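Reading a protein record of the kind used here takes only a little practice. Think of the row as the fold of the chain written in a discrete alphabet. With that in mind, consider the following protein and its fold in token form:
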Amino acid sequence: MRIGLYPGTFDPLTLGHLDIIGRAAALVDRLVIGVAINRDKGPLFALEERVAMIEAETAAPAARLGVEIVAHPFENLLIDCAHEVGAQVIIRGLRAVADFEYEFQMVGMNRAMDDRIETVFLMAEARHQAIASKLVKEIARLGGDVSRFVPPAVAQALRDRFAA
């Protein structure tokens, strides 16, 4: 069984993330969405909320593609998470050249720790490449319309969070 791991904070889950998830799911038999617990980033949504968003938004693509997609919270090293879930490949999304330099360093470190696990870079469709969770949160915080960047349920969750 080919198992892929797509890690991130997914705070919040965007259409760019879903595009990468769809592309990655076509490459593996089981796709694990590694939901990072990063206390330093101070996420807007609690871990449970982010996992629920992922589960809700990936159910239909998983059924359509005939692949298992699961959310898996983690707080340890990415390579250790890959071992935990049995992943042979780590999937990373790239938006721009600026992402590549950081990702290049991460691949080198991960390969130094375990050279049996490959990293695959996928780019979202052009219309989703500029979407960044940080910018989506800022737009929502300032009352802007984020419906072009996130699924409807996530847009509602953002409106609810900033209305409080």
Remarks:
- Residues 47-65 form the longest helix (19 residues).
- The CA atoms of residues 3 and 87 lie 5 Å apart.
